[in-house]
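Researcher: Let's walk through a ligand-bound prediction step by step. First, I give you the protein sequence. Second, the SMILES string for adenosine-5'-diphosphate. Third, you return the three-dimensional complex as C-alpha cells. Ready?
Model: Ready.
Researcher: Here are steps one and two:
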Amino acid sequence: MLRELPAARPAVPAVPISQVDASGAAAKPTGMDELDRVLGGGLVPGTVALLAGEPGVGKSTLLLEAGALAADRCDVLYVTGEESAAQVRQRADRIGAISENLFLAAETDLAALLAHVDAVKPELLIVDSVQTISAAGIEGVPGGVTQVREITSALVSLAKQRTLTTVLVGHVTKDGSIAGPRSLEHLVDVVLHFEGDSRGRLRMIRALKNRFGPTDEIGCFELGEFGLIGLPDPSGLFLSRQHQPVPGTCVTVTLEGRRPLVAEVQTLVCPTAGNEPPRRITSGLDHARVGMAVAVLERRAGVRIGRCDIYAATVGGVRLTEPSVDLAVALALAGARTNRCLLPDIVAFGEVGLAGEIRNVAGVGRRLAEAARMGFRRAVVPVGTDAIPADLPMDVLQVADVASAIVAGVVGLP
Ligand SMILES: Nc1ncnc2c1ncn2[C@@H]1O[C@H](COP(=O)(O)OP(=O)(O)O)[C@@H](O)[C@H]1O
Ligand SMILES: [Mg+2]
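Model: Step three, the predicted complex:
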C-alpha cells in the first residue's frame, strides 16, 4: 500500500539543523512584565496562544492592555465577538488602552475576520473569544466543540502561514469547560490560564503549556478600575496578618518557577457528627495531598483526626499545589486538632511522605531568604538541608518526620 503513495516535491528541502535560521524563534516582549514572565520573555512570532479563564476574571481587560502596549511597535487587530466595538472602546478609555495602531473589529464570522486580517495586516491578532466566531460550511453550532475546534485550526493555519502571532480567548466554566478550551490545548502552542476569585482583586496567570518557554512561572496582577497592575512582589498578599497567632494556621514558602512565595494555610478541624462520613473541604490546595496529610497525622504522629471534618484553605485565592506545602498543612491540622498555635513568626515547608518522613525540596536557601525578608524568624525544614545561608537571621529547625516536628514544640501551647 505504502508504495502507491505519491511523493510531492517539498516546498522547502530539508537542511542540516546547523543551517536552520532560528532568529524568528526569539520571543518578543508584550510589554506587560508579569505576562512576559509567564511566557518566558514574550511571544515568539507566529505563536498561537489560548488564554482561558472564567467569565469576568479579566481576560478582555488583559488582552486589551497587552494589545495597546504591543501597538507601540506594530499593528494589532483586536476582534471582539462578545462585546460591541463601543463597549470595548469604553473599556479602552477606562484603562488607558488607546493607540492609533490598535485596530478594533466587532466580528463573529470567520471569513470576515480573515478579510480584516488581510486589510490590517497586523503582527498581533487577538480574538475575543474563539467561542463566538462561527463559519458557514462547518458542521455544528457556533460555540460548540466541533465549530470551536475547526475555527481554532483555521486560525492556527493562518498564524503559521503568515507568522501572525495570535491570542485566542477561551471561556471555561467553574466545572471545567464548555466547548472545552481543554480540547483545543493540543492545537495551540501556548495555553495560559487566568484565575482569581472574581469577588476579589487578585489575579494570577500561569502557563499550562508552552512550546517556547517554561510552564512553572506565575504572574500576579491586581484588577482595579483602571485595569490590571502587575504585582512583582506578591508575597505579602497571601498572608492573613493576624495580630494574635490562631490555632490551625501555618505559613509556608512555595517556589513558583524561580520565585519564592510566602503564603498561609488555614485549617479547621471539627469532630464529625454521628455516623456521617467525615467531610474534607479544600480550597487552593491539592485535595488528595490534604487527605494524605490527614492520614499521616493519624497513623504516624498520633494525632486523632481521622473521624473529623476537615477544612483547609489558602489565603487570598492563591493555589498551592507544590508538595512542599505538605508540612505546613500537617502542622496546621495538628494545631487545629489540638487547639494550639504554632510558635510565632514561623514558616514550614517540606514534602511529607506516607511513612511520616519529611522529604527535601528544591530551593531551600531561596525560600528561607524570602521568609526572612518578609519578617519571619523561625523555620521548620527537612533534615539534611545543606543550603541554609550562614548569615540568615532565623532559627532553622531541621526535622526528619512529622511526629518529631510536633514533639519539637513547633505546635506550641494551647
Ligand atoms: N467600570 C468598571 N470599573 C471597575 N471594574 C470594572 C468595570 N467594568 C468591569 N470591571 C471589572 O472588570 C471585570 C471584567 O473583566 P473582563 O476583562 O470583561 O473579563 P472577561 O473578559 O474575562 O470576562 C469585571 O469582573 C469587573 O470586576
Ligand atoms: Mg471578555
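Researcher: And what stands out?
Model: The longest strand covers residues 259-271. Residues 27-232 form a domain with the Rossmann fold fold (CATH 3.40.50.300).
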